Amino acid sequence: MAVNKAALIRYKILDRCFRNPGKKYFIEDLIEECNKQLSEIDPETKGIQRRQILYDIRYMESAEGWSAEIDRIPFGKKKHFRYRDINFSIDNQPLNFAEIEQLSAAVEILSRFKGLPQFEWVNEFAPKLEQSLTVESDNPIIGLDGNEYLKGVEYISPLFHAVLNKKVVSISYQSYKSVAPGEFIIHPYHLKQYNNRWFLFGHNEKLKKLTNLALDRIVSIGTCDVPYHDNDKYNFNEYFEDIIGVTRPDGGVVEKILLKFNEPTLPYILSKPLHGSQKTVKAKDEMLISIEVMHNFELESVLLSFGDRVKIISPQHLQDKINQRLQQAATHYKD
What we know:
Layout: H1 5-18, E1 25-26, H2 27-41, H3 50-61, E2 70-75, E3 78-83, H4 97-111, H5 121-133, H6 156-164, E4 169-173, E5 182-194, E6 197-204, E7 209-214, E8 218-223, E9 255-261, H7 266-271, E10 279-283, E11 286-293, H8 297-304, E12 310-314, H9 316-330
Antiparallel strand pairs: 1-3, 2-3, 4-5, 4-8, 5-6, 6-7, 9-11, 9-12, 10-11
Helix pairs in contact: 1-2, 1-3, 4-5
């Protein structure tokens, strides 16, 4: 059964309503929510009727949809609708038949763009999507890089909707340095994946500045009735341009870093740049690599991962820092 764009939008709206414990959504409220958001997308829409919403609810409850358990809770002479488990979301469920059908059609369309300029990403993305839509096999064709045991992935969907709907969240968070969780009021702005981990960026109510929290250190998430602090300062298309990873140090300065890799490693670095600013530099008879980034923990970790295959030429303070960390590491093996 094909599902059109308007239907998918309605399912997303109903999903948010059924997960909201702070409001009772009667059938009239569901119709109003759907018509309001559909009219924002298409001002000429004629709206939807009660019959359509009831059909949508039955579809969400069906095996063809998401097998959602939706309760009709009596309130006077009327009934309001809510998920039996408010942590349930259609975003967290395996793909249903309609979604697989739509994605299969999308893969077919994407495949037509392979090899065209500016569509190089299709060469990598389309095969991954094709494999995810096929029957699972003991011997898959493509191995995807990911950590199936990573904690915190269950928070991606609620945080995504918090960003989308501009909702302030209360987060119980335990950093590696803390013996007990702390509470943070966060105005969420952006979700970022780096090195198979997810991070939330948002305005920290206590610190009065942008902070990032690793999702695998989150203990729990709750709602918070605080006016949302709009992001009018940070462009996350540009925020990460001058750093490796996710840590942008306060007062950080972009520096030109010169690196010398040994001959076996150099082709690897040339084919897989460390950063978008990477350039090759000829110095006498040597081939050096330059990058222009801020000094942060992730930069040190990347350089340390190459061990004796790289030498930092400049700046001196970074050379000293890496030298110090290597010497400290060596002390673990003196015995």
